[in-house]
Amino acid sequence: MIVFHYLERSCSHRIVWLLEELGLDYELKMYQRLPDTQLAPPELKAQHPLGKAPVMQDGELVLAEGNALIQHLLDRYGRGRLVPESQTDAYSKYLYWLSVSASMFSANLLALMAKKGDFGAYTDYINAQVGIYFDHVEDTLNGQKWIVSDELTGADFALSFPLQWGINFVEKANYPNITRYLEQIENHPSYLKANAKTAGRLDLSRF
Question: Between the CA of residue 84 and those of 61, 66, 87, 108, 140, what are the distances in Å?
Answer without folding.
Answer: 26, 19, 9, 28, 17
